[in-house]
C-alpha cells in the first residue's frame, strides 16, 4: 500500500469516492491519488441514489468495513479513507477508529455527514450531540492513532472548525451531484460554487497553510467544471463520487446500448433492402421476386406455424430441400436441428432401420440397438426427401406414424412415440404413382395436407438476374476472386436457356464461367454452349385444372436494358449494338419501360 503522506507531494489531487472493488481498480488505473470507501458508492452500484446513504437502511460502518476488506484494501495500492457515520449515539468512536486502523485503512472521513442537513433537522441533530462536533471528535481521535483525515464541510464555519481540529484535508461539498439520470438539482451554480470555495480556501489557509482543500458535488459534473472551480478557488484537488462511477456508467451503458440497438436496426434495414433486391425468401436461399417464388415463400411462412405435414414438390434442382429447411427455420421448432433423410440414397433393405431403428439382434450385424430418425426427430422436424422412392411396406408403417405417432423398432413389439413434424419432398408425380400402384393413395392424402410446388427456373426466368447477382460473388470468392460481374450478352444467353436442371444447373454454369473468365467481367464467351430451345408448356398438374401461365419478364428486361444504357452513357446506337437489337426495337422497349 502507498503511504498517505505521498499525497502531500501532489500538486492537484483527485480522489474517488467509490463502493466496489471494480470501481476502485478502474479509478487507480485512471490515476486517482486516493480512494474514499463510502456506503453511498455501494448504494449507487445497487441502483439506488447516493442520498439513500442518509437513511437507516443498514449499519453504515459495518457495511463499509465489509465491502472494503473484501474488495478494495487488498486490491489497490492507493491510500483508502474509511467513510464513517456517527449518527448512531451508541457508536463508540474510539473503538471505531481503532477498528479502522487495524483493518488497514490509511485514513478516515466523516461521511455520511450532518452538513447535508439544514434547518430544523440539522438543529435537532446538533442539540442531541450527533452533529458536526461529533464528526470533528471522530477525526481528532483518528489523528491520534496515526490515520489521515478528510473532513467534509459545506460552510466556512464548518471548514474552520475542522481545520482547527487538525484535519489533513477538507472536502468542500456542494451536495448530491446534479448530473445523470438520478442527479439532484443543485442550489449552487458553477460560478457560485467557485466563489464560495475561494472564500473558504483563503480563510482556511490564512490560519492553517498546510491543510489541503478539495471540492466535490453539486454543479461539478465534468472535468472541465472541476477545472474551472479549482482555477477560481485555488482548490488543491477534486473528489468525485457519482461523477466517477454513476454518471460515466450511465452514459457509457446508454451509448453502448444505443450502438447495439443501431446494429439491430441496421440489420433490420439491411434485411429489408435484401428483401427488396433478392426477394422475401433470401434468408432461406430462395432467391427471386417473381410471382411464382413469392407465392412459395408466402406459403412457407403460413404453414410453418403449425405442425401440419407438408409435401414439397418440384423438379430436381428447384430448391426443395431449401424450402423444407425454410419451413423448419420459420417454425416454433427452429431451435432444434432439422433431421433429414434422403430415401433414394439409402439401400432399401436398410431404410426401415434408418427410419424406425432396430433392437440388438434384429438382423445379421445388428450387434446393438439403434434409434431411428423418427426418434431423433422427436420434438423437431423430419424431412424425408425423395419420398416417392419409399417401398409400399414402409409406406404402410409411415402412414401409421402419421395417424397416431406410434411405431416399433425392427425386432421389437414395443410401441414407441414420436411427435416429429413431417416434411416430405419429391420430384416425382405421386398422383401418377398412385394410378400405377406404386404409391398408397391414403398415404398421399395424409402427406398432401399442404403441397408447396417449387416452380422450375423456366417458369421464373425474370429471377435469373437476381440469382446471378447472388451466386456470382460467392462462386468468384471460391474459385476466381478477380471476377466481379457479368455483362449483358451473357445475361441474354442465360435468359434464353430452358434450364432443365433448374437453379442447380445455373450454379454449375456460373462455376464454369467464372473459372474460364480471364477478366473481371463474365461474357458470353466464358459460358458453356447452352441450348436456347424452350421446352413445351407443362401439362396441367392433377387437381389444378389449368395449364401453367405464360412467363412474362418485363422487369428483368428493363433492368437488362437500363444497365446497358448506363454503360454506354445512354447512347442508343452503342447500346443497341451491345444488346444485339435494332435501334428502333431498342427505342420501342425504352418507351415501353419508361426509360425515355
Describe this protein's structure.
By secondary structure, the chain is α/β, with parallel strands linked by helices. It has helices at 21-29, 39-45, 60-71, 93-103, 119-127, 132-144, 156-164, 190-207, 223-233, 246-278, 291-304, 320-329, 348-356, 373-376, 392-404, 430-436, 441-447, 464-479, 488-496, 502-516, 554-567, 572-579, 583-592; strands spanning 13-18, 34-37, 80-84, 107-110, 148-153, 169-173, 212-216, 237-240, 310-313, 339-342, 381-385, 406-407, 416-417, 421-426, 450-453, 485-486, 521-522. The strands form four sheets. It has an eight-stranded parallel barrel, surrounded by eight helices. Helix 1 (21-29) links the parallel strand 1 (13-18) and strand 2. It is elongated. It starts with 12 loop residues before the first strand and ends with a helix. It comes from Billgrantia zhangzhouensis. Keywords: ATP-binding, Nucleotide-binding, Transcription, Transcription regulation. Residues 286-515 form the Sigma-54 factor interaction domain.
Describe what is shown at a glance.
This protein is of the alpha/beta class and 596 residues long.
Query: Could you say which structural class the secondary elements and strand pairing correspond to?
Result: alpha/beta
Instruction: Tell me the quaternary state.
Output: single chain
Number of strands: 17
| Low-pLDDT regions | 1-6, 533-555
Which strands sit side by side, in order, in the main sheet?
1-2-3-4-5-6-7-8
* Total DSSP helices: 23
Radius of gyration, CA atoms, in whole angstroms: 40 Å
Which descriptor suits the 3D outline? elongated
Distance between the termini: 82 Å
Helix content: 40-55%
The portion of residues forming beta strands comes to 5-15%
Average of per-residue pLDDT values: 87
Amino acid at each position: 500500500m502507498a503511504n498517505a503522506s505521498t499525497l502531500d507531494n501532489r500538486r492537484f489531487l483527485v480522489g474517488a469516492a467509490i463502493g466496489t472493488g471494480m470501481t476502485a481498480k478502474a479509478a487507480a488505473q485512471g490515476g486517482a491519488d486516493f480512494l474514499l470507501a463510502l456506503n453511498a458508492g455501494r448504494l449507487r452500484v445497487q441502483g439506488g441514489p447516493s442520498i439513500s446513504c442518509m437513511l437507516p437502511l443498514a449499519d453504515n460502518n459495518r457495511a463499509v468495513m465489509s465491502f472494503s476488506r473484501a474488495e478494495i484494501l487488498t486490491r489497490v495500492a492507493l491510500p483508502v479513507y474509511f467513510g464513517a457515520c456517527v449518527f448512531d449515539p451508541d457508536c463508540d468512536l474510539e473503538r471505531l477508529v481503532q477498528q479502522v486502523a487495524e483493518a488497514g485503512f490509511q485514513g478516515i472521513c466523516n461521511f455520511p455527514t450532518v452538513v447535508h442537513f439544514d434547518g430544523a433537522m440539522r438543529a435537532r441533530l446538533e442539540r442531541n450531540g450527533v452533529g458536526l462536533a461529533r464528526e470533528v471528535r471522530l477525526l481528532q481521535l483518528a489523528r491520534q492513532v496515526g490515520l489521515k483525515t478528510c473532513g467534509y464541510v459545506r460552510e466556512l464555519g464548518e471548514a474552520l472548525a475542522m481545520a482547527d481540529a487538525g484535519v489533513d484535508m477538507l472536502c468542500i461539498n456542494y451536495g448530491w451531484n446534479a448530473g445523470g439520470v438520478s442527479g439532484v438539482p443543485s442550489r449552487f451554480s458553477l460560478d457560485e460554487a467557485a466563489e464560495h470555495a475561494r472564500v473558504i480556501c483563503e480563510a482556511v489557509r490564512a490560519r492553517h497553510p498546510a491543510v489541503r482543500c478539495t471540492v466535490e458535488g453539486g454543479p461539478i459534473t465534468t472535468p472541465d467544471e472541476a477545472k474551472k472551480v479549482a482555477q477560481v478557488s485555488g482548490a488543491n484537488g477534486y473528489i468525485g463520487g457519482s461523477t466517477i462511477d454513476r454518471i460515466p456508467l450511465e452514459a457509457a451503458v446508454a451509448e453502448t446500448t444505443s450502438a447495439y440497438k443501431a446494429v439491430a436496426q441496421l440489420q433490420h434495414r439491411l434485411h429489408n433492402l435484401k428483401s427488396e433486391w433478392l426477394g422475401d425468401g433470401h434468408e432461406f436461399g430462395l432467391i427471386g421476386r417473381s410471382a411464382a417464388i413469392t407465392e412459395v415463400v408466402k406459403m412457407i411462412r403460413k404453414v410453418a406455424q403449425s405442425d401440419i405435414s407438408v409435401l414439397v414438390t418440384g423438379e430436381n434442382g428447384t430448391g426443395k430441400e431449401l424450402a423444407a429447411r425454410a419451413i423448419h427455420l420459420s417454425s416454433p421448432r427452429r431451435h432444434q436441428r432439422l433431421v433429414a433423410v434422403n430415401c433414394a440414397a439409402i439401400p432399401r433393405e436398410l431404410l426401415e432401420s434408418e427410419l424406425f431403428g432396430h433392437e440388438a439382434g434384429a438382423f445379421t450385424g445388428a450387434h446393438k440397438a439403434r434409434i431411428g430418425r423418427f426418434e431423433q426427430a422427436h420434438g423437431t422436424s423430419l424431412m424425408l426427401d425423395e419420398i416417392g422412392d419409399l417401398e409400399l411396406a414402409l409406406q404402410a408403417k409411415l402412414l401409421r406414424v402419421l395417424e397416431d405417432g406410434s411405431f416399433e423398432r425392427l425386432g421389437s413389439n414395443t410401441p414407441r412415440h414420436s411427435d416429429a413434424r413431417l416434411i416430405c419432398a419429391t420430384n416425382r408425380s405421386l398422383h401418377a404413382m398412385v394410378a400405377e400402384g406404386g404409391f398408397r393413395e391414403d398415404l398421399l392424402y395424409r402427406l398432401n395436407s399442404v403441397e408447396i410446388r417449387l416452380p422450375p427456373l423456366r417458369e421464373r426466368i425474370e429471377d435469373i438476374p437476381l440469382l446471378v447477382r447472388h451466386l456470382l460473388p460467392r462462386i468468384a470468392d471460391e474459385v476466381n476472386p478477380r471476377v466481379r460481374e457479368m455483362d449483358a450478352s451473357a445475361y441474354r444467353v442465360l435468359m434464353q436457356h430452358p434450364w432443365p436442371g433448374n437453379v442447380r444447373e445455373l450454379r454449375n454454369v456460373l462455376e464454369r464461367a467464372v473459372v474460364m473468365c480471364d477478366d473481371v467481367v463474365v461474357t458470353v464467351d466464358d459460358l458453356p454452349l447452352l441450348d436456347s430451345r424452350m421446352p413445351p408448356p407443362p401439362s396441367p398438374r392433377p387437381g389444378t385444372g389449368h395449364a401453367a401461365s405464360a412467363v412474362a419478364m418485363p422487369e428483368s428486361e428493363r433492368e437488362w436494358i437500363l444497365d446497358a444504357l448506363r454503360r454506354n452513357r445512354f447512347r442508343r446506337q452503342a447500346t443497341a449494338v451491345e444488346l444485339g437489337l435494332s435501334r428502333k426495337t431498342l427505342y420501342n422497349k425504352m418507351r415501353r419501360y419508361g426509360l425515355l
